[in-house]
Amino acid sequence: MGPMTPNTPPVSWQAFHAAEPDLADTVRTRFRQYKHHVLATLRADGSPRVTGLEVEFRMDAMWFGMMPHSRKALDLRRDPRFAVQANPGPDAEMADGDVRISGRAVEITDPAVLARFVEAVTPPEPFLLFRADPAEVVRTGIDGDDLVIQVWRPGHPLRTLRRGADDSPVREV
Length: 173
Fold this sequence. Notes:
single chain, 173 residues, alpha+beta, 9 strands, 40% strand
């Protein structure tokens, strides 16, 4: 499981959903459980910035809306790479697992798309809108004594890895 590279370009949410509908539905459901999530962007000096964010799933896409001139918006305009983690919830149980997505954010300036988004969501205005295109989707959960990690990348089959609580090696299933 190497890092995301230029050889793994992101795809649309719709393409991810077509490739792995069960995982895509699980991820979308997990993000919809809570309103606020955690977004990581890159500052101008390359260091990470972590901030809160709302994630919307509409019009067959995953969206980030944000205030103009917010640091996260400026970060994404300069370098579109992101990682977003679903809110883990109020306790340590995470019954539905931990979900993370990394990829590239595409700023939307098309007035027709913006109008459709405003009609569906009614965001505070003014706002900037970014479509989030995934390059990696990871779901981590517990099954008995095992940590189960599902990893999807465009052009590759879904991988499921299991790791026990002991020193045994990770198993791919």
